[in-house]
Design brief:
The protein is an alpha+beta fold. The chain folds into 2 domains: 10-170, Collagenase (Catalytic Domain) (3-Layer(aba) Sandwich); 175-298, no CATH class. Helix content is 27%, strand content 33%. It is built from 7 helices and 16 strands. It has helices at residues 31-51, 60-71, 73-78, 132-146, 152-169, 210-216, 295-298, and strands spanning 10-12, 81-84, 94-95, 98-99, 102-104, 112-115, 120-123, 126-129, 170-174, 183-187, 197-201, 206-208, 230-247, 250-264, 270-287, 290-293. A 4-stranded mixed sheet has the order 1-5-6-2, with helices on one face. Strands 9-10-11-12 form a 4-stranded antiparallel sheet. The chain has a 4-stranded antiparallel sheet with strand order 13-14-15-16. β15 and β16 form a beta hairpin. α1 crosses α2. It is globular and about 60 Å long. Zinc ion binds at residues 10-12, 141, 145, 152, 155.
């Protein structure tokens, strides 16, 4: 804690509807924490998409913040995000007399402390974890402080703009009417050489299966010397369930979507292949009222 007092502490304050004081399973493994860590992992991608998007416009100062976050992003990924409760732990989230969602310092790679008491909010008896888009708003704000921008409301607006682009590029398919919280999510990028992300949210976790999909969709041709040409991007659309079949406690969901892939030749030129409809068989398990995505069983053949 050396020098802590001399450092400026920056914060973000989101108005809570009510504070949730109930019990919750574990620390660091809940849906809000998962959303925040996923937002962090994909933040450079979300910012890059935003900068090229026509959904929002950024002024020069806003661009400067985002470009600065991008240029320092490798360093940001090595830094820590620590989840603590202000009521039970040693971290004081009261700053200037107000309870804050997060606090950090003003240099790239600084630890970000996130207040567990404020990332699960209760609305009409339902507990809502901080969403992926809210997490993006939060992190743009905090990483903005790392770039030595100090105006909280300016950073809130900037974070909300990036989140708006994400909202526009995200598509969610619920598992079924009875399990609406379980969703398959795809996030599009606006670039030819980039991959649509595919994420699965079950009752417990948010799982990124983009990597597995890269293996499944690598239909690039063999080039000179029989070398496989490189898959450099894909675009996924028109998601729907082909079928969903229960067998005991296990649900087998046939996810159907259209895939277009981008491959790079040895000479550096790209070509595009429309693969048409592809399917992915996703397995889920019912655990009382909850649903678990069976990640290992689903992808065991790869
Ligand atoms: Zn702030």
């Amino acid at each position: 804690m050396n020098g802590l007092k001399s450092l400026i502490i920056f914060t973000l304050f989101i108005l809570p509807l009510t504070l949730w004081s109930g019990e919750r399973e574990g620390h660091g493994g809940g849906l809000a924490e998962q959303n925040i860590m996923t937002a962090r992992l994909h933040l450079a991608e979300f910012i890059t998409i935003s900068l090229s998007s026509s959904v929002v416009t950024f002024d020069d100062e806003e661009r400067e913040v985002l470009e600065s976050i991008l240029s320092n992003f490798e360093q940001e990924l090595t830094s820590k995000i620590i989840f603590k409760s202000g009521t039970n732990d040693e971290v004081d989230f009261y700053i200037d007399g107000q309870l804050r969602v997060a606090k950090t310092y003003d240099y790239p790679g600084a630890t970000i402390w996130i207040n567990l008491d404020l990332i699960y909010l209760e609305k009409m008896g339902v507990i809502r974890p901080m969403s992926l888009t809210q997490a993006v708003t939060l992190l743009v704000h905090e990483y903005g402080h790392h770039q030595k921008f100090y105006d909280h409301s300016f950073l809130d607006t900037l974070g909300a703009k990036v989140a708006k682009v994400l909202q526009n590029n995200i598509y969610k398919l619920p598992l079924s009417r009875n399990y609406r919280e379980v969703v398959v999510m795809t996030i599009d990028s606006n670039f030819e050489e980039s991959f649509s992300s595919l994420l699965i949210r079950d009752s417990f976790d948010l799982i990124d299966v983009t990597k597995q999909l890269k293996t499944k969709l690598n239909f690039c041709r063999k080039g000179k010397q029989n070398l496989q040409e490189k898959l450099v991007g894909f675009y996924l659309e028109n998601f729907h369930w082909g079928s969903r079949l229960w067998k005991g406690d296990t649900l087998s969901g046939r996810l159907v979507f259209n895939a277009t892939i981008v491959c790079k030749r040895g000479n550096g030129n790209n070509y595009i292949i429309n693969l048409g409809a592809k399917t992915l068989n996703l397995l889920f398990k019912k655990e009382e009222t909850l649903i678990r995505f069976l990640y290992k069983q689903t992808f065991k053949d790869n």
